[in-house]
Write the structure tokens for this entry.
Amino acid sequence: MKLVALISGLCLALPAWAQAAQGTSVQVMDYLRQQMALQQIPALQVAVIQQGKVVELAALGMANVEHGVPATNESVFSINSCTKAFTGVAVMQLVEAGKLRLADPISLYLDDLPPSWRALTIRQLMTHTSGLPNIIDDKESPLGGENEALSWSKVKTLPFEFAPGERYSYNQTGYVLVGKIIEKLSGESFVQFVENHQFKPAGLKHTRFGDSSDVVAHSAGAYTYSRNEGGKWLTGTRLATTYVTFPAYFRPAAGILSTSGDIAQWLLALQGGKLLKDKASLQAMWSPYVLNNGKTQGPNALLNGSALGWPVTVRGEHRAAGPIGGMRSAFFVYPEDDLSVVVLTNLQGVNPELFIDEIAGFYVPAMHPSTGFGLPPAVLPLRKMLLQRGYAEASQAWAELRARDAQALPDEDALNVWGYKLSGQQQLAQAVAVLRLNASLHPSSWNAYDSLAEILEQAGDKQGAIVNYGKSLALNADNSHASERLRALQAP
């Protein structure tokens, strides 16, 4: 019998549940290949856990572009700030051991603090709500480089950014302080504590601390496209390698290298009681900090809450805890759905957190993009109207909704998220309609015009892209993304 016929016969003999799982796997791989083509991602690893088992584990693309090395399940990726999730677990391990409390002021554990820092709580440090000055500069480099003492001497002279608990602002200073507390209470270096109490108990074979200065077996490398001051990376420009180092004192904030399979193994250990004994510890770790105004806030419209090293989604259904790192890696845990999704890439600027919900939708149908799941809640009434009437009616539908309840309408950020979601689903005409509406509603926003121009360019409307990049640049002369794209589009 020919091998093809044998394989075909075996597939037909599979039980219905196995055939369904096989079909899901094919759909997920097809979707990931589409994302890789759209964003020109060199390599990607994925792992999916459902009902306590790894149901998907795969590697796609090229781990090393220069030497043509394919990605495998053993390829090691930097997870950057996803490291903070491990720091969150370390803190909760000390809580379970009775060595600290989240509400404690940090002055109970650390000396030589500026007076204004002493009343800050561990929870405020962990949730980026402390208001502390940042120990990194605008280029994301530590203020004193490798010199820890110099970094501390500089950051201690800086003023608070805001009153503690007033708002969320991504901050590395708090994690360096938490690392010091962990070391003092455990008697081990931060790296040793995590290795001994997380890596080893979870049985992680490929996970370690490191950065670009280390020689790492099976390294997936790190790449980027041209970065700009507007915070965007545009595919199609020159691919370049990136070089990032994390000083030893910075390791509580970033520095773990791993594989999607190891992260999946760690998540199974975490939820299976190997790392934290009490389920209440998981709940505490994943509970968002409530600001002084009674609201939650996080990195973006999707991850709209901040917990202990874990950004979280605050929504009515299918909530998730989702660490993100380096704009290249992310993993989401959906506690109520017994589902976790891990995506690691070697390209800065991918932001996989923006499409992990869609991967989850292949396993939980209620989360499929066709339902509108994952969008900011404020856009759903408008989306419902446009699905019935057509996206060309966006302005009129907006006017009708405004007449009903102007306070319930989505803001600029929510519309922007929706537009990019549609773009990622290859619904370019719909994406253009939403972003055109956004620009008309926010005529003084350079970012609204920039986003519209980017999707117009993607849709093949060169002249429309030029016009809107021009409007963006007129509002913000420092928008290098717009100036770069204008030069490219207007080149003879």
The two ends are 60 Å apart (CA to CA). The longest strand covers residues 53-64.
